[in-house]
Amino acid sequence: MNQRVDPALLAEQVKLIRAAAEKLRVMGADFPAVDRNALRILASVKMIELNLGDAA
Amino acid sequence: MNQGQKYWNPYIETLPREDLHRLQLKKFKRIFQWAYTHSKFYRRLYEKAGVTPADITTLNDIRRVPKVDKSMMRDIQGKAPFPYGDALCVPLEEVVEFRQTSGTTGQPVYQPDTWQDWEWWAECWAYILWAQGYRPGDRVFMPFGYNVFVAFWAGHYAAEKIGCEVVPGGVLDTQARILKIKEVRATAMMGTPTYISGMAETAKSRLDIDPATLGISKITCAGEPGASIASTKRRMEAAWNAKVFDHAGATEIGAWSYECAEQPGGVHVNEAFFLVEIEDLDTGEPIEEPGRKGRMVITAFDRMAQPCIRFDAKDVIMWDHTPCPCDRSFRLLKGGVLGRADDITKVKGVLLSPAAIEEVVRSIDGLGDEYEVIVDRLGDIDRIKLKVEIAPGYEDMAKRLETVLKDQLRLKTNLGYRIEFYDHGKLPRYEVKAKRFKDLRKGSLHSRRVI
């Protein structure tokens, strides 16, 4: 593994993004432009989580 | 971003095997629980088999989970929720992508994907393209008819994700595509081996363009075994002066494997995203050792809308003996997908794989790329006819070519053939998946049985 990569540290940042995007969805429930874009952010967040395997 | 990084995911692709197995078990349990909870189809299947998520505690336990195949998916589609049926695990309003199988083996199967699933498709393809050297700065031409077939859609999205510039060659015909490649100076493209070979032929014969001069440096193939058949790969690489890479995937599964830049003579299974099991063609017993052919059973860990859990893909594969010099920990399948279990059949009591015939035909200078195999029966005797084209300039050498061809076929397949030669351009051309193998032995269930 490339030693410069620390999946656990990356996972901490991803958790923050997920929390923020989920909050956006709640706040934007009546605001389609916010809700649908937040949903796409969450799909991308999921891809990073999958790429971090057990660390995420 | 470090474009010199050779792995799309330096963490996952080099994970020690033990850690990878732990991750696979965790992910299998998660998708199994998901399907058990959210799909009536899967719940019925698993309850009938008497297996619950709690029963899965080791990788070996996974074999207790019933397999699914294409016919089961066909049976449920068209029912509620329309049109997918009750394998669907999400509310219909969360489905944002419709695709279907090509229908090569019967009624097409519909495939729903959520936006997350669609991101996942592109993510799997990003592993493929990065491993094959695609980088920001590549201009990727897509000679692909964008439609209901998933084919290279995800390759398009993955190339964008990586940072490549994508040129969609959708509705253009073959000549227009070649001219567009020349016009924009594309550096890479994707296609079936049949189409990539056909494009090269069209460039030469219709446009008087040598495809080797067009500047394409990388070609990613899918849909047929050709890019892992050494002689077919060599022909494509010579024609385009490019590296040709294989990849295997399927509509119901996802993009589950890829050849890396080392071109090790096989494909890596993306084992962080998929679980590949190999079963003996006769007994169904698991095959762990390298070098023994079997039937693939595959699970996609992260596909959520319509999960793919222990799917009997009917692909014939085998593990490779040797590790890949690329140092990925993902295992290699020697020769990629070796064929369809449906196509491997007994002729005169001998197992025949159409891929073996292609390997021979395309290894002989003087023969064209196209061929057709017809198996029929006269009385109780099986017969095989091979139709091949003679390449331009070799017309006077038919007798010698026939001798070489028969000798090589006997050596590689242990069978005798009737050879029919055709002028160049006379056999059918295919744009997507070729249908070069025809078994006409009607009513002979034994002859179609997979051995």
What proportion of the residues of chain B is helical, as a percent range? 25-40%
Strand residues, percent of chain B: 15-25%
Strand order of the largest sheet of chain B: 4-3-5-6-7
Round the Cα radius of gyration of chain A to an integer and report it: 13 Å
Main sheet makeup of chain A: none
Helix content of chain A: over 70%
Determine the N-to-C terminus distance of chain A: 17 Å
Oligomer: heterodimer
Number of strands of chain B: 21
Number of contiguous helices of chain A: 2
Helix and strand content put the structural class of chain A at mainly alpha
Query: What ranges of chain A have pLDDT less than 50 throughout 5 or more consecutive residues?
Result: none
Order of SSEs of chain A, N→C? HH
> What is the terminal separation of chain B in angstroms?
50 Å
* Average pLDDT level of chain A: 92
Mean pLDDT of chain B equals: 92
> Which band does the percent of strand residues of chain A land in?
under 5%
Describe this structure in words.
- Chain A is built from 2 helices and no strands.
- Chain A is an all-alpha fold.
- The mean pLDDT of chain A is 92.
- In chain A, helix 1 (7-27) runs antiparallel to helix 2 (32-51).
- Helix content of chain A is 73%, strand content 0%.
- Chain A is elongated.
- The two termini of chain A are 17 Å apart.
- Chain B contains 11 helices and 21 strands.
- Chain B has a 5-stranded parallel beta sheet, with helices on both faces. In chain B, strands 8-9-10-14 form a 4-stranded antiparallel beta sheet, with helices on one face. A 4-stranded antiparallel beta sheet of chain B has the order 11-12-13-15.
- Residues 443-451 of chain B have low confidence and may be disordered.
- The chains are: A mainly alpha (56), B alpha/beta (451).
- At the A-B interface, helix 2 of A face helix 1 and helix 4 of B.
